[in-house]
Amino acid sequence: MGVLWAVCMAVVALSAVNGGASSSPYGQWRKLLGLVKEEPLVLKYHNGPLLTTTPLLNLHLLWYGKFTPAQRAIVVDFVQSLGMRKGEQGSSSVSTWWKTTEGYKGSAPSNSNPALGKQKVDETYSLGKSLKRSDIAALLETAVKSGALPPPETKKKGAELYLVLTSEDVMVENFCRSSCGFHGSATLKNVPYAYAWVGNSARQCPAQCAWPFHQPVYGPQTSPLLAPNADVGIDGMIINIATVIAGAVTNPFNTGYFQGDKEAPLEAVSACPGMFGKGAYPGYAGELLVDETTGGSYNAHGLNARTFLLPAMWDPSSRTCKTLV
Question: What are the start-end ranges of the H helices in 251-303?
Fold first, then answer.
């Protein structure tokens, strides 16, 4: 924290000396950050179960609140794109991005094939519009007991990952303050399972949870990028969904791959913050692809001619943060 603060103060000082005109503060960011010696980034395996080694991974969705059909379609296309066969989307694809998780295998072979599972829509706000973090697991338990979502798999044929998505008018404990999404685990009928949550930040905090499609509250104030699916809230959710599901499969029960304290771990994607393309640095997402028609920035192709912006993921083979472009 002290090193980062010193860098920030040096940037401010340099900007003031140069009058803020002839010298770019973002270029100074890059030069100064290059002087900071970083500790090697290694996500250690803690010998626990992983969801990357199961033959089939079913991703079940619980939509809480009001989403338009178009918004749901964007997310569904993303989830289905995770399991697309090689060559169907090209080299810069959602499935290529997901393939990096196969390197998180411990001592077992990794061959997880993600697939869209069941979906449950709760537009009645059954627990209200202000949720505690514990309510996420409670929603899933109710959905499973009612038969709307299948129970956790008890055989070795596959595994379940449950994803709760809340609409822009729903407040969740710590949302926007310290979290854009999270993953956790619970037990149902003595069977442990992994789940995750992500909220739509469009109304509450796009600066915190939808960057780089919105200007950040702090740091370099670069112009926001155009969202590839023309929905800042949903395109921001895709980034956060990618982050939490990558964490969930590689560290489902806090005994998988992570660095640091298991209560606040650096995981597959959270270990590589703010990186989307080559040359990324604080305030700059990196070199990205741009749609010639819409102007939307992206780095991954998906199902139904969709494009998405996906974050860098730590690659166990190279021990570096890996971007698609």
Answer: none
pLDDT per residue as tens digits for the range 164-223: 999 999 999 999 999 999 999 999 989 999 999 999 999 999 999 999 999 998 877 889
Which run of H or E residues covers position 122?
A: strand 113-122
121 vs 98: CA distance, rounded Å: 26
Distance CA 113, CA 21 (A): 52
Rg (C-alpha) for the chain, rounded Å, is 20
Contact 300, 97 (CB under 8 A): yes
Q: What's the number of CA atoms in the CB half-sphere (13 Å) around residue 166?
A: 30
Query: Among candidates 270, 256, 262, 249, which has minimal Cα distance to 314?
Result: 270
Residue with tokens 């072979």: 109
Nearest to 259 by CA among 74, 101, 43: 43
Q: Cis (ω within 30 of 0) for the bond into 212?
A: yes
For strands 313-315 and 320-322, give the pairing. antiparallel
Q: What is the pLDDT of residue 87?
A: 54
